[in-house]
Amino acid sequence: MKRGFSMSLDRYDRHILSLLQENGRLSNIELADAIGLSPSPCLRRVRALEESGIIQGYRALLDARKLGLNLEALVHISMDQHTPERFAHFEAQIARLPEVLECLLITGQSADYQLKVVVSDMDAYQALLLNKITRIEGVTGVHTSFVLRRVLDKTALPIPT
Questions:
Q1: Neighbours of 128 (CB within 10 A)
Q2: Rounded to two decimals, what is the model's pTM?
Q3: Topology (CATH level 3) of domain 65-146
């Protein structure tokens, strides 16, 4: 799907998207039954939503704590230069770090980027920060906030009507 292009969604499409966001493992038969269509047209709709790029993929959601990843942090990064080359270099380096779950180029703050990172403990965070993040060329400032508790944790997007 071309960026900026929007596929027209009817009530069946919206229902499919809502159900698949809740449970991406629904079989086509279960999905068709839930939305009130026969399996064949339901599958065509799902494939159209995939081909349009609205459905980007399917993933398993993991419990970080059960994997020993007990510390989550939001890290604000300031850069020395605001050039496309400097940003591209930073983004390429950050993309290589498995501890970084999210990287956002932001405005309205004193920082240029906000990272969401997850690690096992404070020692692991210190190693990530000092041995990797601050060694990326152009990083001039780092401000970290540690997550005390997740109040809301959603992955489902609101489906426009």
A1: 20
A2: 0.88
A3: Alpha-Beta Plaits (3.30.70)
